[in-house]
């Protein structure tokens, strides 16, 4: 399974857009890119998943360039409640095994 | 829809004691996972069940950890004997994944925080 690299931490202020980039240079042809969010004292929660181009849901957008070697999770107008750890994961359609890295710790300030 | 249930939420034991965690997945979810999350790290998969069969236990320390999923529903994870380095949060997750189906979202429970003294 492809290894991912993402920033250890990021700071933002309420109302700003936050973009978290993940690098996955060894992504395989059938790999999907998935992002999970984890609040303190809770289990991770699925945010969004994509294969190529752009995916948007009610929570976030996921941008994937043509070479798929990186992806960017975009959180529009963050609030204090978006303070959490965000994990980027890469996995294939033939397995749902999740390999978590250390994630990106997002701190949103008022 | 009820989420993944885990108990207990917290457990404190001394090293060399034994401990067991319980998980009840979302109804109808065929696949169940146990993860270990050490403070400051991402979750690490310990074992994956599909129904009542083990799919992957390659990272389960089998000399001290065991898990079962009788009847393909609830699951228990046991540690015997516990070591100091077992202090972590133990997360259970479930998904609807069945063989041959593309990737499915995993739903996580709140976890059990284990402290080994």
Q: What can you tell me about this protein's structure?
A:
Chain A starts with 8 loop residues before the first strand and ends with a strand. Chain A is built from no helices and nine strands. By secondary structure, chain A is mainly beta. Chain B has strands at residues 5-7, 10-13, 19-24, 31-37, 44-50, 53-56, 65-68, 75-79, 88-95, 107-108, 112-116. Chain B is mainly β. Chain B has no helices and eleven strands. The A-B interface holds A 32, 34, 41-46, 49, 87, 91-93, 95-103 and B 4, 31, 33, 40-45, 48, 56, 91, 93, 95, 97, 102-111, 113.
Q: What characteristic shape of chain B results from the CA principal axes?
A: globular
Low-pLDDT ranges of chain B: none
Strand order of the largest sheet of chain A: 1-9-8-3-4
Radius of gyration of chain B: 14 Å
Task: Count up the helices of chain A.
Answer: 0
How would you spell out the order of helices and strands of chain A?
EEEEEEEEE
- β-strand number of chain A: 9
Q: What oligomeric state best describes the polypeptide chains here?
A: heterodimer
Low-pLDDT residue spans of chain A = none
Estimated structural class of chain A: mainly beta
The topology string of helices and strands of chain B comes to EEEEEEEEEEE
């Amino acid at each position: 399974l492809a290894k991912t690299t993402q920033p250890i931490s990021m700071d933002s202020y309420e109302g700003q857009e936050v973009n978290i980039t993940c690098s996955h240079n060894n992504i395989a042809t059938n790999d999907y890119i998935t992002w999970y969010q984890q609040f303190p004292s809770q289990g991770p929660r699925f945010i969004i998943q994509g294969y190529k181009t752009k995916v948007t849901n009610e929570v976030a957008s996921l941008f994937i360039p043509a070479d798929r070697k990186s992806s960017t999770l975009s959180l529009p107008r963050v609030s204090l409640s978006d303070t959490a750890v965000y994990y980027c994961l890469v996995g294939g359609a033939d397995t749902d095994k999740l390999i978590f890295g250390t994630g990106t710790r997002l701190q949103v300030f008022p | 829809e009820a989420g993944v249930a885990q108990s207990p939420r917290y457990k404190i034991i001394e090293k060399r004691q034994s401990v067991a965690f319980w998980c009840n997945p979302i109804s109808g979810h065929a696949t169940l996972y146990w993860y270990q999350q050490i403070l400051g790290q991402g979750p690490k998969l310990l074992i994956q069940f599909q129904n009542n069969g083990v799919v992957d236990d390659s990272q389960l320390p089998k000399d001290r950890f065991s898990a079962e999923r009788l009847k393909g529903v609830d699951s228990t994870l046991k540690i015997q004997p516990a070591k100091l380095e077992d202090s972590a949060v133990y997360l259970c997750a479930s998904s609807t994944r069945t063989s041959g189906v593309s990737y499915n979202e995993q739903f996580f429970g709140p976890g059990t925080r284990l402290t080994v003294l």
